[in-house]
Write a structure and sequence with these properties.
Structural class: mainly alpha
Helix content: over 70%
Number of helices: 18
Distance between the termini: 77 Å
Largest sheet: none
Strand content: under 5%
Shape: globular
Number of strands: 0
Length: 479
Amino acid sequence: MMDLAELLPAWPEWAMNLLLIMGVLLFFTWATQFIFPDDTSESEEDANDTVQVVDAKAQQNKEFLAFRRQYILVYLIIMLADWMQGTHMYTLYLSYNVNISALFLTGFLSGAVFAPFLGSAVDKYGRKRSCIVYCVLEIIINTMEHSTNFTILLTGRVLGGISTNLLFSAFESWMTTEHRKRQFPEAWLSRTYSAASVGNGSMAIIAGIVAQVMEDFLGQIGPFQGAIGLTVAALLLVLQWEENYGEESDEKKEESSSSGLYQQFVDGWSTTFKDSRVWRIGMTQALSEGGMYTFVFMWVPTLLSLDPPGGVPTGCVFSSLMMAITIGGFLFPPLQSIVSKLFTCTFAPELSATLIYTLAGASMAVPAICLSSDSSSCFTRIIVSFIVVEACVGLFMPVAGTLRSKYVPDALQGAILNIFRLPLNAVVVLGTHATDVMESWKVFSLVSACFLGAALLQFSMMLFGTSAHITTTTRSKQD
């Protein structure tokens, strides 16, 4: 009979232990949702509610859960397709023997160039239409990846910069506005963001496996062919959505239709600069996500430089890191619940964000300190710090979404979310450049500084922000 050990992958013991520990932690954090039940449950019912009121709440809860499933299903499909491309894009270009850095840089530059204008178009012409455009673009881009012609690939990267902006603005804008359009409680928004964060981490884990299987059967292009099929499925689901433009009244919608795209563009920039809360949210996003992307460039070469026993099985470590993101998504609702009960509920998201970014900054200080001296005994501490920062990523994805929905006006969500991507792209480009010209410990020091800077900005929101929801739901009623 074959020994069980022979069936297991030939990974080093430390990697297998890491994967096992993360699996156990994921199970226990999943169980926290039963300890801290969803705030859309019947626990919100008041003892004095009449039967009619109870029935109305139950019906609203049922409608919300159906709406959330509608959005999350599409979100999971597009993120699975996106992760499948990301895991194999480098190796595909490597097999084509083309200038890989030029292709990636073109994508970043395209995103930066189109970001200021694209968001205004999303708000002006509709979020559903923008989601449809995203799906169509992704189908075209992944079809172009079949070509080895550098010009075609370069064109694909230009389109990829556009589609990336749509991915991180159109879908969220549609969900947030539709949530309010259907008059669901504001507190329920954070649950949708948390579910999206959990789903994102889960899709990353699944994508690694599915993409590898498709590569085994179809070659390097296999994952991109799979992404085409997934995007077609997402497109069919998006076609069933209702359109929204971020307006809350027929009067505002008529006003919006008569205004030009240029005015939408001007309003987005004007609101960003005039409202300090909005640009602070944008800079928080730029610093935190910029730090995150820089970390993504650093973790593999850092672990390889430490030369752990048995080497570094990157696929195994990647799965462990993605489990940490999923764990973070599961931990957000209980963290938000605890913070809301211990402190004033008004600034619960801001306080949660401050704590999360501070923890992320502290975790990145560990490799900065270790690598600045003798790093031979630092491997365990560094791998733990990597797990912690990825868990923080899983936490700050929903908290950042909650804060954007709180402070960014519905009617300008597409424009402002794309404006946020300008400083984000700048931080990513600078961080990527730093990985080439600076020592590792200095790069991790910069990443830590980015997270701590985001924490300070969030702390300032509690000192100089306002508790009202005026920038989103109330402003349009006052105009």
